[in-house]
Specification:
There is one protein chain. The chain contains one helix and ten strands, in the order H-E-E-E-E-E-E-E-E-E-E. It is mainly beta and 263 residues long. Strand 6 and strand 7 form a beta hairpin. The longest helix is centred in the N-terminal third of the chain and has 24 residues, at 3-26. It is elongated, with a radius of gyration of 23 Å. An eight-stranded antiparallel β-barrel has the order 1-4-5-6-7-8-9-10. It has one helix spanning 3-26, and strands spanning 41-54, 58-62, 73-78, 83-95, 100-123, 131-153, 158-180, 195-213, 216-234, 243-261.
């Protein structure tokens, strides 16, 4: 786990502790009538954030050399970087005049993972002394989910929540490329082709809503996203008939949203 993820988890734990303290106080406090009006609303929201994807630690590809194993395979190791995404949602918000479980949002969420370079290093012949190339593979996704967000309790304008979504994703992998490291002679690229596929997808999340006005909510939270198993198209030359396997694509996401409750 890198330093950024550790800082993010510490922040989430601190936010959770604050929510727990607020809950203890809210249990003995009547809801503030300004922010607890039992009115249902249609809503629209938009936002974005950063995702921290995770892939197979190592992928092995037959290099066509004919050498005895394991020298007949090259190892592709992935870097785990962060990438941006945007999200839009719409639906209906049910509201009850109570402290605990005061609101439930049901609707559709669209999330677009902007094109990002997924990649790392290539170790030829499974020999660490032959780590000779960097590689990159472009990945993007359009995700449509049936989603629900449940507020756990309310203290003044603050409403912690849990969320879940279930649906599908259209995922594209393509624009594969290789670059030789210094003092290494460039080889013929494996040339893995573009691949598109429809995938089952789901999310799980938690965070905090804050009422800026009685009809405008800003939210910050964490979300786990799973897009299932991904791989590239087939390669060229001795890599024909083979694809670059990314394994199960899942990511940790930090996000912010702005929600407007329609009159």
């Amino acid at each position: 786990m890198d330093k950024t993820m550790k800082r993010m988890l510490r922040s989430l734990l601190a936010a959770g502790a604050l929510c727990a303290l607020s809950a203890a106080h809210a249990a003995h406090t009547k809801p503030n009538p300004t922010w607890a009006s039992p009115t249902n609303h249609w809503f629209l929201s938009a936002g974005g954030g950063l995702e921290y994807p995770h892939f197979n630690a190592n992928t092995r590809i037959n290099n066509g050399s004919g050498f005895a194993p394991p020298a007949d395979q090259d190892i592709y190791s992935y870097d785990n970087n962060h990438h941006p995404f945007v999200t839009f949602a719409g639906g209906y918000r049910y509201r009850w005049n109570q402290t605990w479980f005061p609101a439930l949002m049901l609707g559709l969420t669209y999330q677009y993972l902007l094109s990002n370079d997924v990649g790392g290093k290539i170790t030829q012949f499974s020999d660490p002394t032959f780590t000779n190339y960097n590689f990159r593979l472009d990945v993007s996704a359009s995700i449509l989910l049936a989603a629900a967000k449940l507020n756990l309790f309310q203290y003044r304008q603050f409403l912690p929540y849990v969320s879940a979504g279930l649906g599908g994703a259209y995922v594209r992998t393509g624009s594969y490329g290789e670059t030789a490291l210094p003092n290494v002679t460039p080889r013929t690229s494996a040339g893995f082709a573009e691949n598109t596929k429809n995938q089952f997808a789901y999310t799980l999340g938690a965070g905090l809503d804050y009422f800026i006005t009685p009809t405008l909510i800003i939210s910050a939270g964490y979300q786990y996203l799973n897009l299932g198993h991904l791989y590239s198209g087939n390669g060229t030359s001795q890599w024909s008939g083979q694809s670059l396997n990314l394994g199960s694509y899942y990511s940790n996401e930090v996000l912010m949203n702005l929600t407007y409750l329609l009159p």
